[in-house]
Amino acid sequence: MAVFTPLDDAQVADFLTRFEAGSLKELKGVASGTENTTYFVTTDSRELVLTLFEQGEHEELPFFVDLLDYLDEHRLPVPGPLHDRDGVALQSLAGKPALLFPRMPGKHPTAPSIAQCSALGDTLGHMHSVSRHFEGQRPNPRDLHWLAPMHHRVLAYLSPEDQALMSDEIDTYQAFFGDASDLPQGAIHGDLFRDNTLFDGEQLGGIIDFYNGCTGDLLFDLAIVINDWATDDDGRLNKERHDAILTAYQTRRELTCSERDAWPMMLRMTALRYWLSRLLVVYVDPPAHDLTPHDPQRFRTILGQRLKGALPLPA
């Protein structure tokens, strides 16, 4: 259960009076979260999501608010946070930072269709085109500057073969990206897995959970998407889904020559990023709450496949 801070109807009804959001009709805890407390809130006028932030760097929350406001203003399907009667979005409830969002339509796709992949690619390309002009700054907390020191913390838990693989890969990334041309930068989602989207049939209803959002290489974001959305159970890339995402993406933002050159290496680096982060959760820094960690082997398998090469990028 992911309701770490229990709330009652009276608390939430009082909280709602800060907003033009209607009166409370129903409050329901959401069990699917892993880090924060989430409630579905039904009022007499709309459906909302209430999030209380349980951990993380709370001083970074204004960045996420500003980013969501910016993307919402540019008509991206994101949950732009509600602002109170004084124009303030970030609130406090039960001693925790709190945000109130509109509830986006749809459900998570478990086996995305080609049409859903195309819709996601189109929206991500639109988001990246717009986000290049976002003025907020938050360095990517999981880029190569993080990988290099953090991988030492898990080596003792790996086989000699995997120790060598991880260390050699990071050396390769440092040599490649240290000499590579500067890649286009902008605000990115940073964790755009299938379970951070909502689809109503084939229509993308919303992109949610921007709490890994940051500014950095746009290609980093795109590689995360392909490694999740276009990968089969054996770790191999699915050409139809791969091409659907990337073709739609490039109708909004064409990849540069430097991005095309860096693409196979970025797929490898983002695969290792999740292999490492999941290993850290299992062996080094378990979650504060009683939750089942994701299996690191999934991304070890994906990395192994990416080492064999990438599919050609659509023109």
In brief:
The protein has 9 helices and 9 strands. The protein has 315 residues and is an alpha+beta fold. The strands form 3 sheets. The chain has a 5-stranded antiparallel β-sheet with strand order 1-2-3-5-4, covered by helices on one side.
Question: Any overview of this molecule?
Answer:
With 315 residues, the chain is of the alpha+beta class. It has two domains: 9-102, Phosphorylase Kinase, domain 1 (2-Layer Sandwich), CATH 3.30.200.20; 114-306, Alpha-Beta Complex (Aminoglycoside 3'-phosphotransferase, Chain: A, domain 2). 41% of the residues lie in helices and 15% in strands. The chain is built from nine helices and nine strands. The strands form three sheets. It has a five-stranded antiparallel beta sheet with strand order 1-2-3-5-4, covered by helices on one side. A two-stranded antiparallel sheet has the order 6-9. A hairpin with a 2-residue loop joins strand 7 (197-200) and strand 8 (203-207). The protein is globular and about 55 Å long. The mean pLDDT is 95. It catalyses: L-homoserine + ATP = O-phospho-L-homoserine + ADP + H(+). This is Homoserine kinase. Pathway: Amino-acid biosynthesis; L-threonine biosynthesis; L-threonine from L-aspartate: step 4/5. One of its GO terms (biological process) is threonine biosynthetic process.
